[in-house]
Write a structure and sequence with these properties.
Shape: globular
Distance between the termini: 16 Å
Strand content: 5-15%
Structural class: alpha/beta
Largest sheet: 8 strands, parallel, barrel
Number of strands: 13
Number of helices: 14
Order of helices and strands: EHEHEHEHHEEEEEHEHEHHHHEHEHH
């Protein structure tokens, strides 16, 4: 069965591969330059991607010693990009653990207005312990507590977005009546974590509610996505596990009274495109060589939910570290890493290189045709509704995929040749 894929470009720094700044194809200084972000967004829009997906972190860890992990504020960058793009969705990450619902609701409603209906909010709960100290807390809340807060947070945000009816603005110059107060409603939320009156100080946005995205594959994360999100960013390495995740997601979505296909499942992939398989593999080896082995322990500690691995021999097979995962750690991703290392007999060093290449997502290596074949197999197996594309480096990695792989997908009827709708929600429902 031929289905139309959904594609979102995941962008951070000068690429998702660790130490991508060392590549001769990148310029680390450009990551704080508006012209750089404009170029990346336009490359994705030229390829008709559904969305431009901006990641975020809330703390600078020890990995800054060897990696370019500076991160500008996603909402500020995306707001600037509204003036330089026309159709692509603009999705920004904002944490429910260290933010305020009123502020987030206002920011993304504003972004939806400025972009004329292209805004999306990626809901995350923040699993990096160092972030807590930047927001006046000694420790990161437990995983279950973070998701309990997130559920209420999203409830408040959506209530604020719904506070203005579509026809609340009257704008009658002759009578001097600007708005109908009966069509503007306070949220009056009184909950466990938040007390919010509302309403927002701006009218209902073009999409009504900006699109909600969700990144998290633990039980609570999946439930949050099933209740509220329209796209979920997940990590799956095997077709069978991808198919199982899609099925489980649809069942959960139906349990929340929504259509099973209302939530699009987009696993992350990192493409390495070459004119030949050998060229693509050489590109992988090049990026793998950028990792700084002197900071191996700090790198893995960050990606294993703050689990200290400094006492382990980097060249011995990784032991089973699952019992050492703390209750406030990110759950699904560290477990996936550890289980993969145990299954494949990877050493600490090999696991670090695997993660560094793709942020733990699936690397897809080969010619444009081979990569298109791979994505088509996942689609036909009902293992994905599309993919989050994480270029190893930017903007070249994104350009390689957009100019070489996307045309093949279009020729096969797997991806749009041009935008049909104008809003992000319309892109996701094509």
């Amino acid at each position: 069965m031929t289905r139309t894929l959904h594609l979102a470009a995941y962008v951070q720094g000068v690429g998702a591969a660790q130490a991508a700044w060392r590549s001769p194809r990148t310029d680390a200084a450009s990551a704080l330059d508006l012209e750089y972000w404009i170029e990346c967004a336009r490359v994705a829009e030229a390829a008709c991607f559904d969305a431009f997906f901006l990641a975020d972190v809330l703390a600078v860890g020890d990995q800054i010693a060897s990696d370019s992990t500076e991160r500008p504020d996603p909402v500020a960058v995306l707001s600037a990009l509204t003036g330089f793009t026309e159709r692509i969705g603009l999705v920004g990450t904002s944490s429910t653990t260290f933010n305020d619902p009123f502020t987030v609701a206002r920011q993304f409603a504003t972004l939806d207005h400025l972009s004329r209906g292209r805004a999306g909010w990626n809901v995350v709960t923040t699993a990096v312990g160092a972030s807590a100290a930047n927001y006046g807390s000694a420790a990161l809340p437990a995983h279950a507590d973070r998701y309990e807060r997130a559920e209420e947070f999203v409830e408040v945000v959506t209530a604020l977005w719904d506070g203005w009816e579509a026809d609340a603005i009257v704008g009658d110059v002759a009578s001097g009546r600007y708005a109908d107060l009966e069509r503007i409603h306070a949220a009056d939320h009184r909950g466990t974590h938040f007390q919010v009156a509302g309403p927002l100080p701006l009218r209902r946005s073009p999409q009504g509610r900006p699109v909600i995205a969700q990144a998290g594959s633990s039980g609570p994360g999946m439930n949050l996505g099933a209740a509220w999100a329209e796209l979920t960013f997940t990590t799956q390495w095997e077709i069978e596990s991808g198919r199982a995740f899609v099925q489980q997601t649809r069942e959960l979505t139906a349990q929340h009274g929504r259509a099973p296909g209302a939530l699009k499942v987009l696993p992350g992939i990192m493409p390495f495109v070459g004119s030949t398989d050998a060229e693509a593999r050489a590109l992988v080896r090049g990026f793998g060589g950028f990792i700084d082995v002197e900071n191996l322990a700090a790198f893995l500690t960050h990606h294993l939910g703050n689990l200290d691995v400094s006492d382990l021999d980097p060249d011995q097979p990784l032991p089973d570290l699952r019992p050492r995962l703390g209750e406030n750690a990110s759950v699904s991703r560290p477990r996936l890493y550890i289980e993969t290392a145990l299954r494949e007999g990877l050493t600490l060093r090999e696991l670090a290189q695997r993660i560094s290449l793709s942020l733990g997502h699936r690397a897809v290596v080969g010619t444009p045709e081979a990569i298109a074949d791979d994505l088509q197999r996942w689609s036909e197996a009902d293992a994905a509704d599309g993919f989050i594309v994480l270029p190893a480096d930017l903007p070249q990695g994104l350009r390689d995929f957009g100019e070489q792989v996307v045309p093949i997908l279009q020729q096969r009827g797997l991806f749009r040749r041009e935008y049909v709708g104008r809003t992000l929600r319309e892109h996701l429902t094509e």
